[in-house]
Design a protein that fits this description.
Helix content is 0%, strand content 47%. It has a 4-stranded antiparallel sheet with strand order 3-10-8-5, with no helix packed on it. The chain has a 4-stranded antiparallel sheet with strand order 7-6-4-9, with no helix packed on it. A two-stranded antiparallel ribbon has the order 1-2. It has no helices and 10 strands. The chain is mostly beta strands. The protein has a domain at 47-114: OB fold (Dihydrolipoamide Acetyltransferase, E2P) (Beta Barrel).
């Protein structure tokens, strides 16, 4: 039984993957997945809006400098053939847009920042 490690790049992010060769009649060894990373912590300079799931940015409904209120729809994320509204969690002004329409995002990627 041998284990080989590979680095795989997917959507610009590198993941380390281990593959175990299993002989006929043997059962593969189960290992626990690593714990997910903690959500980014706001440093008081603004509120990051992150992707709630992996998907593709279907539409960005705001522009930098635009004022938004808590509950406003700021973007649409397409995931699993469904359009998911991304909602502003606080009142503020869009300070930075980190993604473009059509761009793929992963869970936790920063979409935009509200100051």
């Amino acid at each position: 039984m041998s284990i080989k490690a590979y680095n795989i790049t997917l959507n610009g992010k590198v993941y380390q993957v281990e593959v175990e060769e299993v002989q006929p009649g043997q059962k593969p060894v189960q290992t626990a997945a690593p714990a997910p990373k903690a959500a980014p912590v706001s440093n008081g300079a603004g509120e990051d809006i992150t992707a709630p799931m992996p998907g593709s940015m279907f539409n960005i409904l705001v522009k930098e400098g635009q004022a938004v209120k808590k509950g406003d729809v700021v973007a649409i994320l397409e995931a699993m053939k469904m359009e998911n509204e991304i909602i502003a969690p606080v009142d503020g002004t869009i300070s930075t847009i980190h993604v473009e329409k059509g761009q793929n995002v992963n869970l936790g990627d920063v979409i935009l920042k509200i100051a």
